[in-house]
Structure formats: C-alpha cells, structure tokens
Design goal:
- The chain contains 14 helices and eight strands.
- The chain has 437 residues and is α/β, with parallel strands linked by helices.
- The chain has three domains: 87 residues, no CATH class; 180 residues, 2-Layer Sandwich (Nucleotidyltransferase, domain 5), CATH 3.30.420.10; 106 residues.
- Helix 3 crosses helix 14, helix 4 packs across helix 5 and helix 11 crosses helix 12.
- The longest helix is centred in the middle third of the chain and has 33 residues.
- It is globular and about 95 Å long.
C-alpha cells in the first residue's frame, strides 16, 4: 500500500487571508512581549512625533518598540540583522504586521528613544511589583565588562602621541617645503596664473591625523588636570609637594595614559579575554525572581563606589530600600558600609577576593570591622554564598545566552541607554518564563 503524504503546494495561492497569529504557537515569547508593550505607557515614544507636520507617515512607535525588545530578547542587536529578520523571520513579521523599516530607521529610532527605554525598564519592574511577581527582598549586585564599539588598536598612549605629534609636524614641514619648491618650478614654467593651491593627498592625511592626535592629547590633559584638582593640586604648584616632588607637572598625563580615537569615553579594562576597550555595566538582581531591578553603567573599571548609586536607583524604582544586599569584594569600601548601615540595609560584602585571604580590617574602620564579624558567622557565610546563584546567572544570560558582548552605540550616555534596553529585554524574557512555568 503506497504512503500518503501531507499535501505541500508552495505555489498554491491562499483562498482566504490567514491570520498572522496562527503562524506562531500559543504562548510564544513574541506574543508575550507584544501584549506587555501594549499595556505600557508609551507616551514618551509618541511625543516626538506630535505636531511636527511631517508629510511622510512614520512607523508606529509601539510596533518599533515591540520589534526592538523582541530582537534584544532573542539575541539580535544589529539594526541590519533586525531589518533582515523583518523580511525572513515569522515572529518578526507577526510583530511588525508586515512592516519592514530599513536598518537606518531602526538605528535612528533606538538612538532617539534611549531615555524612553530607560523609563520603560522602570515601568516593567514596577508592574511586576504591583502584580505581586516581584517583592522587596534581598538584592545581589555585580558588574560586568562589556566591549565598547571601538577597537583597542585605535587607542594611543600619551607618550606615543607626543612622539607622533612631533614626527607628523616634521613630515608636514618637509612636505610643505617640497610643495613650495614644486610651486616655484611650476610658476617658472607655466606662469603664476595656473592654480596649484590644492593640498596633496599625502599632506591631507598627515594633517588629519595630527588634528586627531591633538584632540586626543587635549582630552587626556583635561582628564588629568581634573584628577590633579581632586587631589588638591593647583597649576601653580609645579612639581612641589609637601612630601616629595610630583613626577609630572599639573595636568600632564603619564606616558602610558591612553585615549581611543573611535570612542574617547570608553576605557581600557581587563576582561577574561585580556585587555580591551570597555564599559562597566552594573545590575541589581532580586533574589526570589532573578529580575533586574536597577542598572548602572560607568567607564570606570573598578566596581568600588558603584554599589550605593545602584541601590539608590533600586530604592526609587521599588519604593523602598532592600533589607539585604549581597556583593563581592570589588564593592568593599568603608564609606559604602557606613551608608548602608545608615539606610538600615544588612550587607554581606566580601572583604577579599576568592582564593585569597580576607583583608584584615583597619581598626579605625568600624563599619568594615562589623562587616568582617558578620561574614565570619555561619549565617553570614551562607547568605554571601547565595550571591553567585542570584546575580551571576543573569550576567550569563546577557553575555552567553543572548550573546550581548559588545555595544552598538558609542559614548557613555548611549551605552548606558543600550544597557537598559538589554536589561529590559532580559526581564521580559524572565517574566515570560515565570508566567509559563
């Protein structure tokens, strides 16, 4: 008896228009994100289009927000890849309802509404709180280095800048002398009426590079001058010091200080793959649900000093201070411990790196001594061990599962905005998992 196969006729026209929602299984992540976005207040996204009298109809912001969040929640961050998915991927076509904005439109929408996405992140956390999914409990805080949209090979040290600056000036002077000699010879041959004032291409390249180096040197010197002022130095001090002479004049960076030509606000940071241009993203994660309740981002490689701002953000979002905070040794700081005690937050923050002995507290640092005593108790050690299971898996979801290892935008403000978008997408993915569990 012959086998009967299911009919398959790719060229057969559909007699009735199908519903796009039938193309995806019930409970799909795309439906969850679409329904969630539809319930949010998107007034800030629409405000940019009110009363501008544009003749071309823009794409609906709700559709654009939904597509962008679904893209980030499924590991697609490039605007070109998102545009291609809108043509080829069923879930994207369902969410966009057949719209296919160009990659430039997607990129511009993302950049234009970074502040609105941050407000959207807060909305989702607050809705989860109101719905009873999220309760005010212990928070675990951690930071992670994410590559900037810049290559470390596009950076240069201050010492090399000074060397290159002089070398380029000498080469430009030599080229100018050569050009003047050529001009004189051509004037003698053709007369002074013939134009010859265009800069040679070689000279243009050198002058452009010289200008970039000069701008980078100015940024480094301004940054160093600010650091010197914070240390109490003034431009009139020279190298004088009460203890020993300063190694450099006021505002002069060390030779190994670096600046990046592509993204000057990023910094060289040590990662598990070595040194690279990075930003340091911060998250505070709820113990019970593993939802991200607060974010932060800085171009400082050290986590020290970042705990209180993140907790303050979480306090504003959740309407109250968390009862407990868990963090690793990168956040240890006497001033931080004192602030948390003032806010009546019980903290479990390691005083030493893993595999290394704990730092012996300074007797003058009373809050640090109390932290050390808390961590020596059995309860304290057990609570601190929970940190790994709360926050590190979330960082793993961001970097390993979704593959977010590099920012698409440049500058600390835009990188901070994109960090909020990826954290919002992770929260939506987590809420979908909780709702379907």
């Amino acid at each position: 008896m012959p086998t009967t196969f299911r009919p398959c006729a790719p060229d057969q026209s559909l007699l009735f228009p199908p519903s796009p929602r039938d193309w995806l299984p019930e409970g799909h992540l795309a439906f969850f994100i679409a329904d969630t976005v539809a319930a949010l207040n998107l007034a800030s996204f629409y405000a940019a289009y009110e009363g501008d009298g544009r003749r071309n109809s823009p794409f609906d912001p709700q559709m654009m927000v939904t597509v962008l969040l679904y893209a980030y929640a499924t590991g697609t961050f490039s605007s070109r890849r998102i545009a291609r998915k809108l043509e080829e991927d069923v879930a994207y076509r369902v969410l966009a309802a057949g719209n296919c904005p160009a990659h430039r439109t997607i990129a511009e929408f993302r950049q234009q509404h970074l502040a609105a996405f941050e407000a959207l992140f807060v909305q989702v956390v607050q809705i989860a709180r109101e719905a009873g999914v999220l309760r005010l409990g212990a928070l675990a805080v951690d930071g992670s280095k994410v590559k900037a949209n810049a290559s470390k090979h596009k950076a240069m040290s201050y010492g090399r800048m000074c060397h290159e600056d002089q070398r380029l000036r000498d080469e430009i002077a030599a080229l100018m002398t050569q050009a003047e000699a050529v001009d004189a010879a051509e004037d003698a041959e053709h007369g002074p009426v013939v134009r010859g004032d265009e800069l040679p291409a070689e000279l243009q390249r050198r002058e452009t590079r010289l200008a970039k180096i000069a701008a980078a040197k100015a940024r480094l010197e301004a940054r160093q001058a600010e650091e010197d002022r914070q240390k109490g130095r003034t431009p009139d001090d020279g190298r004088k010091s009460r203890r020993r002479p300063f190694a450099r004049d006021f505002g002069v960076p060390p030779d190994d200080a670096q600046d990046n030509f592509t993204d000057p606000e990023s910094r060289i940071m040590k990662t598990s793959q070595g040194f690279d241009q990075c930003y340091n993203g911060q998250i505070a994660v709820d113990e019970a649900t593993q939802l991200i309740v607060a974010t932060g981002l800085t171009n400082c490689a050290a986590d020290q000093g970042q705990l209180v701002p993140v907790i303050t953000t979480a306090h504003a979002t959740l309407g109250g201070a968390p009862p407990e905070v868990l963090a690793d040794a990168g956040y240890r700081d006497e001033a931080t411990f004192q602030t948390l005690e003032t806010q009546q937050i019980t903290a479990f923050i390691s005083l030493g790196r893993e595999g290394k002995p704990d730092v012996t507290p300074n007797p003058a640092q009373e809050a640090t001594q109390r932290m050390a005593a808390r961590l020596t108790s059995e309860t304290g050690r057990a609570r601190y061990r929970r940190r790994k299971a709360i926050v590190e898996p979330v960082i793993g979801w961001i970097k390993e599962v979704l593959g977010f290892r590099r920012f698409s935008l440049r500058g600390v403000a835009k990188a901070r905005g994109e960090w909020n978008v990826i954290c919002l997408a992770v929260n939506l993915k987590r809420l979908h998992r909780i709702a379907t569990a």
